Amino acid sequence: MKYELPPLPYAYDALEPFIDKKTMELHHDKHHATYVAKLNEALEKEPACADTPIERLLESLDATPPSIRTAVRNHGGGHHNHSLFWHMLRPGKESNAPEGVLAEKIITTFGSFDSFKERFEKDALGIFGSGWAWLVKEQSGALKLVTTPNQDSPLMQGLMPVIGLDVWEHAYYLKHQNRRADYVTDFWKVANWKFAESLLK
Ligand code: MN
What we know:
- By secondary structure, this protein is mainly alpha-helical.
- Helices cover about 50% and strands about 10% of the residues.
- The mean pLDDT is about 95.
């Protein structure tokens, strides 16, 4: 099975003015496309792995053949992270917050939505170099915050992504330049809490 670049679930400019059209074009058409191409290239060398869903490969990375393990980690992780990430965003609105079960769970876990946001921001700004900040669900069902370096997936630690933010410079540098904090502030306007809630369930 060959992986394919999934289409963006909205127009390139749909997240303006928070995330700009040019960034979305490059991020999806170039960066994500490259992860897909390099993942396929690796799997061609190990046809036995080619029909295993990417989630399973990432969950049990130690079981993948050493010859492709790094490629699955980096490019498979990149493909899976970005496939989720596009859906974790949606056209922006000023007041944007989780509702229902997810809202309740965030408040129970972090005290309030604002204190959750504060801690997530601190994580996102604290990542040295490239990586992701995540709200994840543990096997027990509990929520927690984690960061992953490079394109590592939370699945590699047995954690289910609920919402995540790509803090590689390619995700924001054209618009926000060195101001990662402003990018995180803009992320709150376009975070897709409905999709996050569907992942929680
Ligand atoms: Mn990215």
